[in-house]
Structures are given as C-alpha cells and as structure tokens.
Amino acid sequence: MTDQLFVRYHWKSENPDPVVVAYMEKNYPKDLTYFDFAKDFKAMDFNASNIAEIVQATGARYFVFTSKHHEGFTMFPSKTTFGWNSVDVGPKRDIVMELKVAIEETKGVKFGLYFSLMAWFHQLFLNDVAMNRTDYVEQQSYPQLLELTNKYKPQIIWSDGDWDRSDTYWKSKEFLAWLFNDSPVSKEVVVNDRWGSGCMGKHGGFLTFADNYDPGVLILRKWENCDTIDKYSWASTCLCLT
Questions:
Q1: In this structure, how many other beta carbons lie within 10 angstroms of the beta carbon of residue 8?
Q2: Percentage of the chain modeled with pLDDT above 70
Q3: Which residues lie closer than 8 Å to 158 by C-beta, 6 or more apart?
Q4: How many domains does the chain have?
Q5: d(CA 178, CA 237)
Q6: 20 inside domain
Q7: Is 3 part of any domain?
Q8: What is the residue range of 182's domain?
Q9: What distance lies between CA 104 and its chain's CA centroid?
C-alpha cells in the first residue's frame, strides 16, 4: 500500500504526495490544524434513511459504518472524546444512532460498526510506546468499545488499527470474553480478525486479511475482502457525509 495510492489513509507521511501538498498550500492557511477541519464537517446532505434504503435495495445482508477511524474522531458522543466527536463539534448529531435506527427499520440487514483501536496522534497513544504503558487503552479505546456495544448493540464489530501492538496491549481477550459472554449482543455478535499484531487471517468470526487481498486459492473459512470503490483512496465512499 503506497501513499500515492491511498493518500487519505496515512497520517503525517514521510513521503507526502507533492500534488496533495501543493493543493493544501494553495487552498488553506499555513496555521490551519487538523482539528480545525472538524467545525466544517456539517453532514448537511447526510440522510440515514436514504442510505438504509440504498443498502436494502442492493440486496446487502449487512451494513458496517465507521464509528471511529485512526484520527480518533468519533461519530457518536463518546464520554472520552470531549470536543472531538460528531455531537460536540461539526454536525452536532449522533451519526451512529441515526444509522442504527434507519438500518434496523429495513428488513434483513444486520447493523455493524467499524472501530479503529488506535488514534495515531493521541498523546496517550504515543506516550504508551515510549513509556511501556497502557493508558490509552484504559482511558480511550477500551471504554469506547464498551460504549459502542452497550449503547448501539451492533451485530458486527469490525476492529482495525491493531497492527503494531499486541492483543495483550489492546486488552482484546478481556473485551472479547465480555462481548461473547456478558454483553447485550453476546448471542448474535460477529467479529473480524484484527485484534492485535499477528491475529489477522487467524482469529475471528470471519477473516479480512490485508486490504485488497487476493488469496489466490479457495479459502474454506468465511472471509471478507476489504477493497476500495475507486482505485485511489477510501475517500469517495464517504462523501455522502460531507
């Protein structure tokens, strides 16, 4: 995966695309920060019911929405993301709840949530590596997973952002034990395989492997191919929210 191919995916790339850099320098002031973009995210054209209708019309049997990606901005009012979620800033809406309600009103479509374990510029996350601690997990990612499960009751939890730290660091075993035994979705929830370095392609209710993966052979276990709709980035798949 290269920066040129997935320009939206990387944070502070060591090899930035010159076309992207030139565009930013031309159109935005130099003192603009990443956080400043949140206030301009209004979701004016977002309509959960319309999305649910489209999903159902395609014949899809499940729908997975990104509740939080690697930058840490949550599309729900998490108690741990003060001022960095879709209710406190930007659209002032609980996007996850709106989609949950709309999808559940359709017939035969399961509701799922994607969740990035990491937040690549959160200071606690950065400090954990330097100091061999787990403060970020204890105060951010783990509580957020509990919030998502208890409040929104997803039937699918699609974990990501796990690759450079172990399942022990992420407390994956603890969370999954609770999820399948004591959570409100214990009898129906399905999870993927991204719960720590070395887990991908091995452990999970279904496998995802790497993005744009071509197995080359028949895989006997249930698996999902993570591919892009356009060939340059993940961005065009989420323009309906801007």
A1: 12
A2: 89
A3: 64, 112, 113, 114, 115, 191, 192, 194, 208
A4: 1
A5: 32
A6: no
A7: no
A8: 33-241
A9: 20
Mean pLDDT calculated for residue range 27-50: 93
Which H or E run contains 112? Answer: strand 110-116
Q: Pairing between strand 190-191 and 110-116? A: unpaired
Q: Quick one: tokens of 143?
A: 């509580």
- pLDDT of 98 strictly over 80: yes
Could you tell me the CATH number of the domain that includes residue 37? 3.20.20.80
The C-alpha atoms of residue 58 and residue 78 are separated, in whole angstroms, by 31
| The residue to which tokens 């798949």 are assigned | 237
Residues 6+ apart with CB under 8 A from 97: 76, 151, 152
CA-CA-CA-CA dihedral for 27, 33, 39, 45, to nearest 10: 50
Q: Is residue 117 part of a domain?
A: yes
Beta-sheet strands, E only, within 2-98: 62-68
Kindly report the backbone phi and psi dihedral angles of residue 110, in degrees, each rounded to the nearest multiple of 5, phi listed first.
Answer: -80, 145
In sequence order, the 6+-apart residues with CB closer than 8 A to the CB of 110 are 61, 62, 63, 155, 156
pLDDT band at residue 216 using 50, 70 and 90 as cut-offs: very high
